[in-house]
Amino acid sequence: MVRQITAQELIEVYESRRLIETHAMQRICQERLPIPAVLRDLYEKMCVTSKSQDFVQRAEYDQEFHRSIVATINNAVLVELYGSLQVRQQRVAIAAMRVQPARAETIDQEHHDLIVALENFDEDAAIGIISRHLRPVLDVVSRLPV
Length: 146
Fold this sequence. Notes:
- By secondary structure, the protein is mostly helical.
- The protein has helices at about 5-30, 40-50, 55-70, 75-85, 85-100, 105-120, 125-135, 140.
- α1 (about 5-30) packs parallel to α3 (about 55-70), α2 (about 40-50) runs antiparallel to α6 and α6 (about 105-120) runs antiparallel to α7.
C-alpha cells in the first residue's frame, strides 16, 4: 500500500529540490559545464509519456532528467542528498500528474526551455525556469490532503 502524498509534503519536496537544483544550475552556467546529452533523450521520452499518460514511467524519466543535471556538477554529496528525495519525488510527480494531467504540456515546455538555457549558460533564464517548474501549483495542492 502506497501512502498518499499530502500538500505539505509536496511543498517541502519542491522546496528541497529547488535549493539543490538551483545551486547545480548556477554552477553549470558559471563554470560553463557541458550538460549531459541524455537530457534531450529523456525530454523526448517524457513527451511521449504525456500522450500515453503513463505517469509512473514519466516520473522515472523526470527523475533521471533532474538527477542528471545535479550530477553534472560532480558533487557526490549533493547527488546522494538529491537521491534521498527519490521516493518522495516520484510520489509527488505521480500525484501531481494524476490531479492535473493537462499540465504535462507545460512541464514538457519547461524541460525544453531548461535544456536551452543550460546549453547557453544562461543562469538567469535557467533559475527562472526551475523556480516556475518546481513551484507548488495551487490547483494541484488544493486537491491533496493536508
